[in-house]
Design goal:
Helix content: 25-40%
Order of helices and strands: HEEHEEEEHEHHE
Structural class: alpha/beta
Number of strands: 8
Distance between the termini: 53 Å
Radius of gyration: 23 Å
Oligomer: single chain
Number of helices: 5
Strand order of the largest sheet: 2-4-7-8
Shape: elongated
Length: 242
């Protein structure tokens, strides 16, 4: 038994010794790198508080400006497949080219984020967001999330214990601008029920559309697309996951 243990230990030492003379991890394939990609609304606009170059400099400030081995800094953006859509004419299909100028920074969908990754040579991760964050407070905008909120005058909305679809201080109808502390878009929220086939069909279709866009992007730029994380609400779980 002692000889067997000795042979195993010696073999392990040889194996580990062989590993120690391998190539520098920074020269190995992307699959051996750990991607650090905090979520945000990244851009490369001068003066933006989400400027990628400034972010990278802050991340490296604790390492003397040197990237640690096996670690590649990146970024991740959300893709809002219920809000970033074409209008009713195109049946609210996902719009990968949508970009919002929010004053302090830009917030863009798949096309914008991939172009940003290419310009900065930083890998991009994607959080594929559904309800309730993929919404805006302006109910007059023609996108899928507003369509679902207005459907049958709020028939697809969650209600509180008193049957209200909105805050008690406003009229219980869907046309008014949403208003809620800190995040106005959260005032009205679409049901998460798996039995809401209208919600399930639209949301699942657009989620799959996003995944196809990202699949094509990864085929073209495998070094830049580090992950795609689809949200799974209850309406996607029965049979139609993204």
């Amino acid at each position: 038994m002692e000889r067997m243990i000795e042979r195993v230990v010696c073999g392990l030492a040889v194996f580990l010794g062989g590993q120690s003379v391998s190539a520098d991890p920074l020269g190995e394939t992307q699959r051996n790198l750990f991607h650090l990609a905090p979520i945000g609304a990244w851009d490369d606009d001068a003066g933006s508080f989400n400027n990628v170059a400034d972010y990278q400099a802050r991340m490296l400030s604790g390492t003397g400006g040197v990237k640690p081995k096996n670690l590649k800094l990146g970024m991740s953006n959300g893709l809002d497949f219920l809000m970033s859509t074409h209008g009713a004419y195109y049946d609210y299909i996902y719009a990968p080219g949508r970009v919002q100028n929010l004053g302090t920074h830009h917030l863009g969908e798949a096309d914008y984020s991939m172009a940003l990754a290419q310009r900065t040579d930083l890998p991009m991760g994607f959080h594929i967001n559904g309800m309730p964050w993929a919404d805006g407070q302006n109910q007059s905008e023609d996108h899928l999330h507003n369509f679902l909120e207005r459907y049958q005058n709020g028939g697809l909305l969650q209600v509180d214990r008193l049957g209200r679809i909105r805050s008690a201080a406003v009229a219980q109808e869907t046309s008014g601008t949403e208003s809620f502390t800190d995040a106005p878009q959260l005032e009205m929220q679409v049901t998460l029920s798996r039995n809401a086939t209208v919600v399930r069909d639209y949301a699942s279709r657009n989620c799959r559309a996003v995944m196809r866009v990202l699949g094509a992007a990864r085929d073209e730029h495998p070094d830049l697309v580090s992950f795609a994380k689809p949200v799974l609400r209850s309406w996607t779980k029965p049979a139609r996951q993204c």
